[in-house]
Specification:
Strand content of chain B: 35-45%
Order of helices and strands of chain B: EEHEHEE
Distance between the termini of chain A: 35 Å
Helix content of chain B: 10-25%
Number of domains of chain B: 1
CATH topology of chain B: OB fold (Dihydrolipoamide Acetyltransferase, E2P)
CATH superfamily of chain A: endopeptidase domain like (from Nostoc punctiforme)
Helix content of chain A: 25-40%
Strand content of chain A: 15-25%
Radius of gyration of chain A: 18 Å
CATH class of chain B: Mainly Beta
Strand order of the largest sheet of chain A: 6-5-4-3-7-10
CATH architecture of chain A: Alpha-Beta Complex
Distance between the termini of chain B: 25 Å
Strand order of the largest sheet of chain B: 1-2-3-5-4
Number of domains of chain A: 1
Oligomer: heterodimer
Radius of gyration of chain B: 11 Å
Shape of chain B: globular
Largest sheet of chain A: 6 strands, antiparallel
CATH superfamily of chain B: Copper binding periplasmic protein CusF
Number of strands of chain B: 5
CATH class of chain A: Alpha Beta
Chain lengths: 241, 81
């Protein structure tokens, strides 16, 4: 019988961190926001994603941990990605966020809470229930562009509020968007990242054009997960004392 | 990153009309080995192109200066022409 699947264990826990240290490191408002969203994880561990392994402008993919038998849980986005013909093992990544520093991400969030659409959120919100994968663009010009990518994303929810594109996400399941994407009022997570990278990189420009102009073309978290232009970095955690 | 001159046609714009993708003219493509330049909100000279309609217009031929990036040019300044 195969060993039970664990997504957080000693191998990816960097150590412990006290609330005081966390506050000193990222400031009181960010620490309060981060800790306030914590939940207890297996064995009453309270996990803080290690901000030492993330850099501004990184893409964070998230997905539900596998079941204990190692099989993936059903998820509508995973199902859509499989239908799109994405790599099967990458389909488990069902959400994409942009890291903007201080343990916070900007994302186009699914309408499962009052705060939906393009919003700023603490990464700790999902740390208790989701696995993370960090993607870092490999291009030599990326370090010089990362701050501008984050700035573009951060200004977006204030200048141009957009809701989560439920219809677009559903359309990806049926591979049906004959007129290309209209991001004027709605956008979903990975296409929001695509816009930020396309405009301020400029990276992923061909994919950005394909989605905005091409019929029935989508850009999903699994596409990011298999893209060779990104370095894949496993998430590490601190345990909160 | 080296600075280059470019010319091309605005092929696509973002929803707010402040940014867009320029398909480079064939001679520029051949010279630089890149297909696109991207206009961002940081590009100078956009305002003159946006005046009247409030957004960049696809099909407009532009020229300007840019920084050569790993995938595309990043436009620093543009003007019609």
């Amino acid at each position: 019988m195969a060993a039970a699947y664990h997504w957080v264990d000693a191998a990816n826990i960097s150590g412990s961190i006290s609330n005081k240290t966390l506050t000193a490191e990222i400031g009181k408002p960010a620490a309060n926001s981060a800790v306030g969203k914590l939940r207890f994880v297996s064995g009453a561990k309270r996990l803080i994603p290690s901000y030492e392994c993330m850099e501004i402008g990184d893409i964070i993919l998230s997905g539900y941990p596998k079941k204990k038998n190692g099989k993936d849980k059903w998820h509508p986005v995973r199902s859509s990605q499989i239908r799109q013909g994405c790599d099967a093992t990458s389909c488990r990544w069902t959400h994409a966020m942009l890291y903007v520093g201080e343990l916070h991400v900007i994302e186009s969030n699914k309408p499962t809470s009052l705060r939906t659409g393009v919003t700023l959120a603490p990464l700790t919100r999902d740390a208790h229930s989701r696995e993370f994968l960090i993607l870092r663009y490999k291009g030599e010009d990326f370090p010089a562009r990362r701050d501008d990518i984050a700035r573009y994303a951060l200004m977006s929810p204030y200048l141009t509020p957009r809701r989560y594109d439920v219809r677009g996400a559903m359309a990806s399941h049926f591979r049906w968007r004959p007129k290309g994407a209209d991001h004027s009022e709605r956008i979903f997570c990975s296409e929001f990242i695509l816009e930020c990278y396309g405009v301020q990189g400029p990276f992923l420009v061909k994919e950005f054009l394909a989605v905005t102009e091409g019929a029935n073309s989508f850009f999903l978290p699994a596409h990011l997960a298999v893209d060779d232009r990104f370095e894949k970095i496993a998430m590490r955690y601190f345990e909160l004392d | 990153m080296k600075q280059v001159s470019f010319a091309g046609t605005i092929r696509s714009t973002t929803r707010d009309g402040r940014s867009g993708v320029v398909a480079l003219d064939q001679n520029v493509r051949d010279a630089l080995g890149k297909e696109f330049a991207v206009i961002s909100p940081d590009t100078r000279g956009r305002i003159a192109l946006m005046n009247g309609v409030g957004q960049l217009q696809t099909g407009t031929h532009v020229q300007g200066t840019a920084v050569d990036g790993s995938e595309a040019l990043r436009a620093l300044s543009i003007k019609a022409g």
